Amino acid sequence: MISIKEVWHDAEADHEAYVTGHLSTLLEIEEGQAGRLAPAALHDFISRNKESFATGDVDTLRGLIADASATLAGLPNDDARSAFLESAKKVFNYDRFCAKTVHRWSAYKLCEKARNSICPYCNQAFAFTVVGTTTSYRPTLDHFYFKDNYPYLALSLYNLVPSCYVCNSSLKGTKNFFTDHHLHPLEDDDEIRFDLRSTDGNYTFADLLHDDNLLNEYGYLEPHPHSNKAINSIETFLLKERFELNLPAIKRFIRLRKKFRPSKIAQYRQWFGEDFDTAEYLQFEPVDYKNQMLGKILLDMYVAFDPEANGSSLL
After folding, report:
1. In the predicted model, is pLDDT for residue 201 greater than 80?
2. pLDDT (0 to 100) of residue 82
3. Is it true that the peptide bond before 39 is cis, omega within 30 degrees of 0?
4. pLDDT value at position 314?
5. Mean pLDDT, the chain, whole residue set
6. Residues 185 and 140: beta-carbon distance below 8 Å
7. Which contacts of 296-301 are long-range, i.e. CB under 8 A and separated by 24 or more positions?
8. How far is residue 22's CA from residue 154's CA, in Å, rounded to a whole number?
9. Of 110, 119, 120, 198, whose CB has the highest number of CB atoms within 10 Å?
């Protein structure tokens, strides 16, 4: 998983206007008038939290879940609780937001403003938006906190993760990430690190990185988490298994990286009297790894040749 905390920064103002403006209009309808927010418990819940739904951060959204849970617990019966949730689904109408319309703001216009273009869950599928004259497409928007369980978060910007269909629908599906904790791309830092390991334990990481013969014959990828959330993310999104399928491409990158270590570049400059652009030859820009396929694991392999490298500048 890669962290994309700033993915929606360019969209916040438009999304705030869309969601909060819609809620304000509903709240202005007085009791007894057509269109009044009902039931009363939902009206009061939205009224006291109106400023938090649109662009509240992930911790704020957890507070909304806590508030809604307390509200639901205080309702007299299951029918009242069902009415609360069904009405919330209509108020926070995600289907309307996703419609291909000419409205000023929609899921398509939101995705056009995304700062990242790779699925943050797997880092091996595109998640970009293309709007044409007759048709268009965009990434799926995963509700990190599942909208069927928490319909009042259906339009919350920091509950929407631009992701690929495989991660969103095939692997995550209806899992409840509020109770079953996973890394959140819009809140957590990059945590999972990948190493290349010897298949029989006889060779070190450095051996595999620097010996082409060993690299060709041996090696598998091992993701290293630091928390239970990371372990859950690795398992849910099948990261180990999916990255193993890309091992040949990753090994090719390692071979190129070995050829363009700082010491080699210094030799080339001395011999040929010209600079060599490492990023151009590797076709990998460390500072932009979040927008490159397999970017996180390639960054880990890139940095492995020099433990002091952190991806903030080319070596």
Report:
1. yes
2. 97
3. yes
4. 36
5. 90
6. no
7. 296/2, 296/123, 296/190, 296/192, 296/194, 297/123, 297/194, 297/221, 297/243, 297/246, 297/250, 298/250, 298/253, 300/193, 300/194, 300/195, 301/194, 301/196, 301/209, 301/250, 301/253, 301/254, 301/257
8. 14
9. 119
Average pLDDT over residues 193-215: 90
CB contact set of 84 (below 8 Å; sequence gap of 6+): 39, 41, 42, 45, 71, 72, 75
Q: How many CB atoms lie within 10 A of CB 39?
A: 15
> Are 63 and 106 contacting, i.e. CB atoms less than 8 angstroms apart?
no
Which residues, 6 or more positions from 5, have their beta carbon under 8 angstroms from its beta carbon? 185, 186, 187
For 77, phi and psi rounded to 5 degrees? -160, 175
Annotate 235-246 with b (16+ C-beta within 10 A) or e (fewer): ebbbbeebbeeb
Q: Which residue has the tokens 């490298």?
A: 309
Q: Given a cut of 60, is residue 289 above it in pLDDT?
A: yes
CA distance 16 to 8: 12
- Could you give the CA distance from residue 303 to residue 284 in angstroms, rounded to a whole number? 12
Which residue is associated with the tokens 């409205």? 103
